[in-house]
Design brief:
The complex is a heterodimer. Chain A contains six helices and five strands. By secondary structure, chain A is an alpha/beta fold. In chain A, strands 2-1-3-4-5 form a five-stranded parallel β-sheet, sandwiched between helices. Chain A starts with 7 loop residues before the first strand and ends in a 7-residue tail after the last helix. The model of chain A has no long low-confidence stretch (mean pLDDT about 90). The model of chain B has no long low-confidence stretch (mean pLDDT about 75). Chain B is an all-alpha fold. The chains are: A alpha/beta, B mainly alpha.
């Protein structure tokens, strides 16, 4: 029997505490992971210098240093890490900017919780197929 | 209080004073101009499907062969 995939290390960058709590819980529900939190872009950059996350979820509108300012700096530090923008911004120009600055993907967070969960699951399935699949196959991961 | 008989008392407002008159024809024309002008109006917002199409994502895993 193959060894279970190691839990993912996810860096969640979001200024709203309630949303960090909400997304953190959602992530732990859909995939084995440890979630490290940052409240703004600067904290995220500092954490990226000292740790090695498998995935970075990055908001755009944040105090001190916003997601679009932090994105190229994080990308420079972590060239191979998926950086997924998790934001309510869906303007075409901003989406294009995220692509240019090195974001791996963008998920709209201004949607219903169930839809958000589905989109996060889809994203995890794309970037971490092994971990997603292993978690889906666990009996405890089946929906109640 | 106005005790001076030379000065007329201010007229009490009536409901007529609070009526708002909308010029529907002008409003319609303004809206038509706004929405038919390429440079006016808000930025274009994308739905999740359109957003996904902008990113070059890794290929989804194919079904594992037995």
């Amino acid at each position: 029997m193959p060894a279970p995939a190691a839990p993912l290390k996810i860096l969640l960058v979001e200024d709203e505490a309630y949303f960090r709590l909400f997304v953190g819980k959602m992530l732990r529900l859909v995939i084995p992971c440890t979630v490290v939190e940052a409240k703004n872009g600067q904290e995220a950059i500092d954490l990226c210098r000292t740790s090695d996350p498998d995935l970075i979820l990055l908001d755009i509108y944040m105090p001190l240093l916003d997601g679009l300012e932090a994105l190229p700096q994080i990308r420079a530090l972590k060239p191979a890490t998926p950086i997924v923008m998790l934001t309510s911004v869906s303007e075409e120009a901003v989406v294009e900017q995220c692509v240019t600055l090195g974001a791996s993907y963008l998920i709209r967070k201004d949607v219903h919780a169930l839809l958000l969960k589905t989109e996060i699951q889809k994203m995890l399935h794309i970037f971490f197929p092994l971990q997603s699949k292993a978690h889906e196959q666990q009996p405890s991961a089946a929906p109640a | 209080m106005n005790n001076n008989p030379a000065q007329p008392l201010p007229r009490a407002p009536s409901l007529k004073d609070y009526l708002v008159h909308y010029d529907l024809t002008t409003m319609l024309e303004t809206a038509r101009q706004d929405y038919s002008h390429a440079t006016s109006g808000g930025p274009r917002h994308l739905d999740q499907k359109d957003i996904s199409a902008r990113f070059r994502l890794p290929q989804p895993p194919t079904k594992a062969s037995p």
